[in-house]
Amino acid sequence: MSESTGAAIEARDVRRTYQLDGVAVEALRGVSLTVGPGESVAIVGPSGSGKSTLLHLLGGLDRPTSGRLLIGGRDVAKLNAAALARLRNEVVGFVFQSFHLLPRTSALDNVALPLVYRGLSARRRRALAAEMLSRVGLEHRMHHRPNQLSGGEQQRVAIARALVTSPAVLLADEPTGNLDSATGASVLGLLESLNADSGVALVVVTHDREVAARAHRQITIRDGVIV
Amino acid sequence: MRLAEAWRVAFAALRANRLRSGLTMLGVVIGVGAVVALVAIGTGAKREVERQVEGLGSNLLVVVPGQIDFSSAPSVSRLTLSDVDAVTRIVGDRSRVAVTVTSGETVRAGTRSRFSTIDGVLETTPKVFVRSIARGGYLTRSDVDTARRVAVLGAGVARTLFPERDPVGQQVSIAGVRFRVIGVFAPLGQSLGVDRDGEVHIPITTAHRLFATNRVDGIAVKAPDRSGIDALGQRIVAELSQRHPGTEFSAVTQEQILGVLGDILGVLTGVLAAIAGISLLVGGVGVSNIMLVSVRERTREIGLRKAVGARPRDIGVQFLLEAVLLTAIGGVAGMALGIGAAVLVAQLTPVPAAVTWWALALAFGVSAGVGIVFGVVPAQRAGRLDPVVALRTE
Ligand SMILES: Nc1ncnc2c1ncn2[C@@H]1O[C@H](COP(=O)(O)OP(=O)(O)OP(=O)(O)O)[C@@H](O)[C@H]1O
Ligand SMILES: [Mg+2]
């Protein structure tokens, strides 16, 4: 589509209202944000301010109640569930606070998972996944299962999984939230170097002011609006 | 997602919960096994009945007093040998008419004895029915005309009374009267639950004296061809009705007997299969139940798969395949169980259970279909899950 302005993600006056027992909860009340190619953006703000909600919208996991949202140049309002799933597969990569790796599944197969939905052969998937695991420094842990990996290693596997599809944007929601400070620092260092080297845009939600300061751009959210 | 990959994922999911998958399958295994075994037994019973009725001889017409409806006891016969002569005139060939008067009597030879069915018959019996002689000969017309005390023994009777000797030429006593054995039938085995090797044939004229009666229990006619058989039956019934005003007569063909027996067995098989089908249905509900549990347990996995690009359809297909795999494996195991049960029944009972391809195909199709029908709701539920909600689930 020709809606593209070159931005990886573009949000205009985006709102998200939850219905909770008949009461409308406004999690986002008009947010506008553009993430350019290769950019790094840190989102900070108090708990319950709407950071995760925004990140879910930016990654096409959820749809705005109103407002205009373009992901990879495509208007999510015009996409059905299948097309939105494809967009998630091709344009974005997610990293979650709690890793969300499949249990009883090797690091290699966890990383290869997004490629399953591209219809690639098992051989091709494993080759790409192995390459990605090497990029995050886990070439010696490929056949370990999540319960045989440390927290930091698990998050590295999750990062490899997010990047294996060569997305335009990496969305990380408190990626160091479950890690001790030293491990968290090394994971953040990895994210920053990937951002710098491979040109993938990075949007990271964090509580750490220091971390946020290292990003190109810092956005603070309070009560569902950018301040 | 490629279909092969979806199969692999479904299979891995079943393996991860072996015990639960196995127990869920058990419901399907029992259901399919019961359907296959019961249909095999019903089919085997039907074939056996057909084989035996056809084994009586071809183009047979059986004339008996009363109505044939298999539910009432046969009425007392008032037919006599003069009626047989009238029937013979209609048929135009004595060798095509067989008659019986039957009674149960003890047959003795020396110290051995056996209770047997004594059939008073004409010499025509082997020409009308399929009956072959193993030793000696059969009754002759002069045996019948002069009421000789000669007997042809069934294979079982011969074996009991003369275990070491050739019975032909020996003496036996029937109801205390001495008879000379002139022949032995070839073994026939059981037929419709009757031991046909326990029969003894004597001339009908001799039987009338022995039993102190002149009645004839039934007349059987071998029609020259199949096409004229109904008309012939009607003419015989009309003649007999005229000779015995107020008495009803029936003439039935093998086809009619087969039709009635076939209908009864068909209904029986259908009812049994339906009962077995209910257990298959219960197995299907079990599959549905366990799939809902599986979807709930793996909500986070579903959320993650969606986050990395799985479409609702991909997730739905994955869970549907899991259900189908569950019932298909259960179905194959059930078929094996059903075949095993049928073979066991065939060996331990007189019913030659017959496993048919159509029954197997049907059972497999139904079990896979059960997987689809009962897997669809859980699969749709999984496919429609909101990824954000799913990921947040504990
Ligand atoms: N499914 C939902 N139904 C109703 N309200 C919701 C739902 N999800 C989020 N909210 C509400 O929306 C607001 C924003 O939630 P969100 O998870 O985006 O906060 P957050 O900034 O990520 O907080 P934290 O730093 O604690 O993770 C909160 O008030 C929350 O209660
Ligand atoms: Mg949050």
What does this structure look like?
The complex is a heterodimer of chains A (227) and B (394). By secondary structure, chain A is of the alpha/beta class. Chain A is 35% helix and 26% strand. In chain A, the strands form two sheets. Chain A has a six-stranded mixed sheet, sandwiched between helices. A four-stranded antiparallel sheet of chain A has the order 2-1-4-5, with helices on one face. Chain A starts with 8 loop residues before the first strand and ends with a strand. With 394 residues, chain B is of the alpha+beta class. Chain B folds into two domains: 3-51 and 262-392, no CATH class; 76-247, no CATH class. Chain B has helices at 3-16, 18-55, 81-91, 125-128, 141-145, 155-161, 204-211, 229-243, 254-297, 299-307, 312-348, 357-384, 387-392; strands at 60-65, 97-109, 112-121, 133-136, 150-153, 171-174, 177-185, 190-191, 194-195, 199-203, 218-222, 249-253. In chain B, the strands form two sheets. A six-stranded mixed barrel of chain B has the order 2-3-10-5-7-6. In chain B, strand 8 and strand 9 form a beta hairpin. In chain B, helix 2 runs antiparallel to helix 9 (254-297). Chain B is elongated, with a radius of gyration of 32 Å. Chain A binds chain B through residues 56, 59, 61-62, 81-82, 85-86, 88-90, 94, 96, 100, 102, 104, 113-114, 116-119, 122, 161, 165, and chain B through 1-2, 5, 16, 300-301, 303-314, 386-388, 391. Bound molecules: adenosine-5'-triphosphate (ATP) and magnesium ion (MG). Residues 18, 20, 25, 27, 45, 47-53 of chain A line the site of adenosine-5'-triphosphate. The site of adenosine-5'-triphosphate has 12 residues of chain A, from strand 1, strand 2 and helix 1.
